[in-house]
Automatic annotation (TrEMBL), chains A, B, C:
GO terms for cellular component: extracellular space. It is an enzyme of class 5 (isomerase). Its main location: secreted. It comes from the Bacteria. This is L-dopachrome isomerase. Its EC number is 5.3.2.1, 5.3.3.12. GO terms for molecular function: cytokine activity; dopachrome isomerase activity; phenylpyruvate tautomerase activity. InterPro entries: Macrophage_inhib_fac (IPR001398), Tautomerase/MIF_sf (IPR014347).
Amino acid sequence: MPFINSKVNVKLTQEKQDSIKSKLGQAISMVPGKSENWLMLGFEDECKLYFKGDSSTRIAFVEVKIFGSASASAYDKLTEAICNIFNEELEIAKDKIYVKYEEVEHWGWNGANF
Amino acid sequence: MPFINSKVNVKLTQEKQDSIKSKLGQAISMVPGKSENWLMLGFEDECKLYFKGDSSTRIAFVEVKIFGSASASAYDKLTEAICNIFNEELEIAKDKIYVKYEEVEHWGWNGANF
Amino acid sequence: MPFINSKVNVKLTQEKQDSIKSKLGQAISMVPGKSENWLMLGFEDECKLYFKGDSSTRIAFVEVKIFGSASASAYDKLTEAICNIFNEELEIAKDKIYVKYEEVEHWGWNGANF
């Protein structure tokens, strides 16, 4: 039951979006027990983003929401993978990418909570 | 002080949006102490969403942010109600709907925190 | 490593957005250890928002995501400042503004977590 939402201030073509989707689907398995089988993704492109007061560079803000919890080292590996994906696919410098984690206690699907 | 944000990958007509708004306003009272009197809602339609690697089905991601906390059973009832609302109003299959909860400790309104 | 996301149901001109950006960059320093040097901002305008079942007034929902934690009094000062900013810049009544805080334990940047 993970959800990853990506905000970027560049235009996402369908091709790029599908490619990032597939790569995030692989990367999520770095968190034990998680896989693309339960992964939901959201993409927001051409967002109005600023980093350090500046909006002239390429920027990404990625939120990873996970049911339950995982180890710090699992999150660390996922951050590395996510930064690589957005750098490779969209030429966003890694030091312009934030990856923020939220561990969720109550999560519903199909009419009931897990 | 709840906030419910709904992301869907279908088009929301004004009529549907108003109807969902009213139903969410009723459903929130399943959480003790909460009512439409303090409820803020956000709707994002035509979102770019994927579930299990697929974007060809109707999908919803609903986030419920609550000041303080409530019982697991209250959240369970709210999940059931929310899934029913999005299924009835937008024909989104319940197994394509995530409802994610966030319990919030610090919440401001009108210039000060509660 | 703060991130502030602002949803408003009015149109944001570039001028207003830049002005709010600068003011939020100053306000964040009310939280000890935080400054515009690490601040990322997101703006979403013309959002579909309702408060108390009504969408006819000007409304803002501001989320402040902070790595680590801070005192309640720091958050209180920040809420006051944020409500002032949105009231002054966009004529949104302060009692139509929610400011929601999230304290984050796992936060990545530049390929690794802090």
